[in-house]
Design a protein that fits this description.
Layout: H1 37-51, E1 59-68, E2 74-82, H2 87-94, H3 96-110, E3 117-124
Length: about 140
C-alpha cells in the first residue's frame, strides 16, 4: 500500500485563442467613486441634524478645510447657515454643545477622525433673517 505518491504538475495548454483579448481602451470600473472627506463630514453632520428634527430647507451644511493640525492632518469645520428660523432650529441652537458632542461621537464611529481632525461647527444667519427671531 502506497500512502504518498507524486503527481506530475499539469501545465495548462495555453493557446492564443484561449485567452481573452485585452482591449487597452476597455476600462474596468468598480462603480465606487472616490468621495472627498468634506462630503463625508457634511453627510454625517446633516444626518445628525435631521435626527434632531431639522428639515433640509431650514439649514444648509457645508464643510471646508480650515487648516492643518501639528501632525499634518487637515482640520475640517462644519459651517451651518440658517435659512429659516423655526422652532426645531431654535431648539438646535440652544442645545448646540450637546449636538456637537453627538456629531463628534458619530464621526469617531465612521473612522473619519483617523485621517483628519474635526474643528467644530460654525453658525451663520443672514441679516435678513434677524427680523424673524422672536423677542421674548
Amino acid at each position: 500500500m502506497k500512502l504518498l505518491s507524486r503527481r506530475e504538475r499539469q501545465t495548462p495548454d495555453i493557446r492564443s485563442d484561449s485567452l481573452p483579448a485585452l482591449d487597452p481602451r476597455a476600462d474596468v470600473e468598480s462603480e465606487f467613486l472616490p468621495c472627498p472627506l468634506s462630503d463625508e463630514y457634511a453627510l454625517t453632520i446633516h444626518a445628525c441634524l435631521t435626527q434632531q428634527g431639522v428639515e433640509h430647507d431650514e439649514l444648509r451644511v457645508s464643510v471646508r478645510t480650515v487648516g492643518a493640525s501639528p501632525s499634518g492632518m487637515d482640520v475640517y469645520a462644519g459651517f451651518i447657515k440658517v435659512l429659516r428660523w423655526t422652532p426645531p432650529v431654535r431648539a438646535l441652537v440652544v442645545q448646540m454643545p450637546w449636538v456637537e458632542r453627538r456629531i463628534e461621537r458619530r464621526l469617531r464611529q465612521t473612522g473619519l477622525l483617523q485621517y483628519s481632525h474635526f474643528g467644530g461647527l460654525w453658525f451663520r444667519s443672514p441679516h435678513l433673517l434677524a427680523g424673524e427671531l422672536p423677542r421674548n
